[in-house]
Amino acid sequence: MQKIHFIPFFILAMSITAAQSAPVVQLPENSVTSDPSRNIEPPHFENFVSLSRRTIGVQSLVKDGTLREFGKFNPVPTVKEVSEFFIHNLDIVLGPAVEGGTNNKAVTNLAGPDDYKGHPKNKLFVKVLFSKAIDTYDEARALEMMGLLVDTGLVQLKDHKGTLTPPYPAIIMKKKEGVLLLESQEYQAANEAEQRRMKIETVTLICEQAAKDAVQYKVYHDDNKPENAFITFAKGSVKAVDIFDYGHPDTYEVMKEVGEQKLSELCKAHWVRKYSGS
């Protein structure tokens, strides 16, 4: 993968080579596609910043300079400069939607006959970004830092009538394994007490993974609800998690050395308490 250059406009400095002509493939409702032969206008980017939802533990770490919100850069890219980098159609066909994440227009599997840039298509997700805020694209930088980003560009959705929407920015990333807790057979078959236990198991493991990632990749994820991770069950209990949503405003860059245990404990103090009902 071509490395993204972060200075001055880190998330968008990747040139995407589009095919000269490619048909718009008819796909089922809620599927998406792109047509690189179409000369489309880039989306309108809004110059606003999403409000952070910092947990108490993160507030203290931001205050002392240990963590910094993505997007806190000087100088800040202008609307025009950001939009100019998102002018390329992605030469891709996307398949069935995958649930997960709350700030995305769509999260889908990659379809079509070919792999993408050397990556097996069954090992990739495409996130079509709903928000046009500049800070939304900080997710691309977080994914690049973690070795998960494959590409960025534009795609168009097709509605049930087959009509193409205006283009949306999209991120192609390496797929995470597992299922969403609330959609799993184990969770849906469980009683209320068992469901609460599964949620606590999930957020406990998410906190531990988020802390480990912060130390290893210098990216800390703070929106650690069950909806933001795929999980793996073993004998009726949640045994593994894989975080997949690194969007603004709940992702932070680690600026100073911080211990994995400290981050994990701060995270659990908020999220385990939240789902235990205490």
From TrEMBL:
It comes from the Eukaryota. Residues 1-21 form the signal peptide. Keywords: Signal. The keyword Signal applies. This is Protein kinase domain-containing protein. It comes from Lentinula guzmanii.
